[in-house]
Amino acid sequence: MSTSKPRETDLYPPVKALLESQGYTVKGEIGPADIMAVRDGEDPVVVELKTGFSLSLFHQGIERQAITDAVYIAVPRGTGRMFQRAIAANTSLCRRLGLGLMTVRLKDGLVEVHADPAPYKPRKSAIKKSRLLREFAKRTGDPNAGGATRQGLMTAYRQDALRCARVLSQLGPTKAAHVAKASGVEKARALMAVNHYGWFERVETGIYGLCAKGAEALALLGDPDGGDQPSGSTDIG
Fold first, then answer.
1. What pLDDT digit, counting tens, does each position of 21-57 carry?
2. Residues 73 and 98: beta-carbon distance below 8 Å
3. How far apart are CA 48 and CA 63, in angstroms?
4. CATH node for 8-115
5. Does the pTM of the predicted model rise above 0.70?
6. What are the start-end ranges of the E strands in the chain?
């Protein structure tokens, strides 16, 4: 096998041999199809060949679904972790699009089928759905512009931390139970103890104060309950 860049025609003999071993009659370049295979009056199988994954390859595969549901895309098999990640991601994409996926190892003609064409049935995650609905319900107002960077977003957890910080800013070092009552944050003690943002300090057992970093965050991020809030998504901590 030549070490030059592979061509689409290099993929044809191995894919044709695989399909013929399964009882198909196979011909190349039938109309818009790179490969068409027919067996015993069944719907034809169409395979689109490319030397690598590309958006145009998936577009071609989708277009061929106007001919038959049995559409595969085929690319040369590569090596290394990057190719393995590409295979995993594109196998998932093919399943979502109802396409099959083949790779061809050009050094010996081995064809591997990673996915067969089938209707896509997405698996719903009740846990993820519940988590999102819980965050939606707990978050006060709508402090983030859709599409903003994930860094520094105002989450319900950050809003609770700001409520605790506001109480400590007003009262100074305070018992956690009183912070919870004054802020309305039921789990104020655990939140301040974990100190995810580095805003709090434990002054004594059960008593917490506000660090300089917490005071800065309160000044920058504003009132989580609808007071003045700066625009943008400045990240603190």
1. 999 999 999 999 999 999 998 999 999 999 999 999 9
2. no
3. 10
4. 3.40.1350
5. no
6. 25-30, 33-38, 45-49, 70-76, 100-105, 110-115, 174-175, 200-204, 207-210
